[in-house]
Design goal:
single chain, 225 residues, mainly alpha, 63% helix, 3% strand, elongated
Length: 225
């Protein structure tokens, strides 16, 4: 077994363990952290398969943005685990049926085998028009394919993401009656002297005069003596 195969089994075992802990962890924060571990191991497997673009995209987009957002939301929300587990046994038969169907499909694919001989293998070294050998880049080939043949779908996806971002900002800035709304234009127009005022105080102050306190009266028994 070579080094590449050893890394493949290592990444696969860690990813399967992390995926199992995602669905069995009682703490939602721990589940999100295990999901981040699973994504990192999947990125390592894609690097072994020479899919550098997918591996970098998984690390930058999911681990760097989406998972951090999930972790922030889970930590900010007050999630009651006991209330979420109340309907567990009620939905357990449906979840078990869906899991059985997915396991059956995966078993059919795995036992059927992969036709590796018919899969097109991208060469690492190719020849250009002049007949010179140049190094083949998966990322460059994918970029040329996206921005030539699939240019319109990429532009449509970009417009949809832009609309979603603007919608999220609009929903955040909408007026609600249950909390106070701050006008950004008024915040920008505020000047420093309107919010901060310097007050001069004397460095030392004289202590206030204390009045003389009369001594306490003697008890009645001492007066009789």
């Amino acid at each position: 077994m070579d080094v590449k195969t050893a890394f493949f089994y290592l990444f696969s075992l860690v990813m399967l363990f992390a995926a199992f802990r995602v669905i069995t962890a009682r703490n939602p924060v721990h589940a999100v952290l295990f999901l981040m571990l699973a994504f990192s191991q999947a990125a390592g497997i894609w690097l072994l398969l020479k899919a550098e673009f997918l591996a970098i995209t998984l690390v930058l987009v999911y681990l760097g943005a989406v998972m951090v957002l999930f972790l922030f939301v889970v930590m900010m929300l007050d999630i009651h685990i006991d209330s979420l587990r109340q309907g567990f046994w009620r939905h357990f038969p449906l979840a078990l049926a869906i899991g059985a169907v997915i396991s059956l499909e995966m078993a059919m694919v795995l036992f059927g085998g992969f036709r590796i001989d018919e899969a097109p293998a991208g060469p690492e070294i190719v020849t250009n028009d002049a007949g010179l050998a140049v190094q083949f880049s998966n990322t460059k080939a994918l970029g040329e394919l996206l921005y030539t043949e699939y240019l319109y779908p990429v532009e449509i996806a970009a417009v949809i993401l832009l609309v979603a971002m603007i919608t999220a900002i609009a929903l955040t800035l909408r007026e609600r009656k249950d909390h106070k709304r701050i006008d950004p234009s008024r915040q920008v127009g505020v000047r420093a002297r309107e919010r901060f005022e310097m007050v001069k105080l004397a460095p030392t102050q004289a202590a206030p005069a204390t009045e003389a306190v009369p001594p306490p009266a003697a008890p009645a028994q001492e007066l009789k003596q």
